[in-house]
Amino acid sequence: MSPAFGAMEVEHYSKGVLLEPFVHQVGGHSCVLRFNDKTICKPLIQREHQFYETLPTEMRKFTPQYEGVVSVSFEEDEDGNLCLIAYPLTGDHDNVENLDNSDCEPKSKLLRWTNKKTMLLENEKISKEWVRQHRKEEKMKSHKLEEEFEWLKKSEVLYYTVEKKGNVSSQFKHHNPWSMKCHQQQLQRMKENAKQRNQYKFILLENLTSRYEVPCVLDLKMGTRQHGDDASEEKKANQIRKCQQSTSAVIGVRVCGMQVYQAGTGQLMFMNKYHGRKLSVQGFKEALFQFFHNGKYLRRELFESVIKKLTELKSVLEKQESYRFYSSSLLIIYDGKERQEVAVDSDPEDLEDLSEESSDESAGAYAYKPTASTVDVRMIDFAHTTCKYYGEDSVVHEGQDTGYVFGLQNLIDIIKEIRDESSE
């Protein structure tokens, strides 16, 4: 989302935005919702909000852009459908712990709404007809999908065949079981608390998948330790056990979720965190190989870019005094849409005119290489992050987060191994 809305978008949002599941969520337990094409939102956790408000400048390129805070409520229509609606924050009572965000980018440009009482009344009178109409449009496909998700959620690794008709990117929007699981759990929690509470604060973040037609997403749980300093003894023991029984303790990283488009079969492959916990170090390496393989060939053109970005992130984190990113994840994202192959000696001006058909027909006459692809590397999930600047924390750590850095280095080494072995 650009920092500023257009006039029509502001008017629309003042009446509420119907939130939907963010279908590219592959891991985590917190519900992530789609605000619009370029923005997602998730329940506000004070510690994570503080992290984004005080984020060191050098880390900003490795985290989603923070875009503000919204108020979220939910309604239940006559058919029992729960709808989550986002509104702009209004009034002093909605300030989040009175945190000063004067130095925060984008300096609340996103949330420039009036606090006039007239708008408050308009918010409260959000059109149920508007919500009902939207739900009606989604209803037919939702019923079918909910039935499918009941068995999809039971599988740790699954392949879902995309229908041949229609655009791959549009088909891709409806089949991620993990996002639906988190969405349904969030709705259930809010419904159970309805009598005590119907207003929640959510933070708005950049949608990292928005520039990809068919996003392939790898969610990696980073570090050798996952529990926060404030964890109960039971939680601490549970997290330590998960680390010891997975690759986290050995190499400081484990698979928390994955979605990959298999161009060879026209299928979507999903892997959830339960399978990721069971992987050995060799299994982890094979999962990484699978992430970079589209079912037809290995996406070798991605390796140098992802290695460069991971190495740069490692250098940045080595300089972060006292930060600990407990239970944080690292996302690696690229576009699963097949990239056109072009002749090595092609003139750059001619490359845009090459179609897949002409490329295939000419394969015997020229040497070809994949066109450049973009890959993104970002840190997410900071609910248990701590540093010495958080004055209320009872534990103050010194130096870098060695567990996270250790995991990054091993990740870099394993990707290099895959790259070198595939080129032999």
UniProtKB/TrEMBL annotation:
GO cellular component: cytoplasm; nucleus
One GO term (biological process): inositol phosphate biosynthetic process
Keyword vocabulary terms for this entry: ATP-binding, Kinase, Nucleotide-binding, Transferase
Entry annotated with the keyword Nucleotide-binding: yes
EC number(s) from the headed UniProt entry: 2.7.-.-
InterPro entries: IPK, IPK_sf
GO molecular function list: ATP binding; inositol hexakisphosphate kinase activity
Pfam families assigned: IPK
Family membership: Belongs to the inositol phosphokinase (IPK) family.
Name of the molecule in the record: Kinase
Protein's organism: Formicarius rufipectus
Gene from which this protein is expressed: Ip6k2
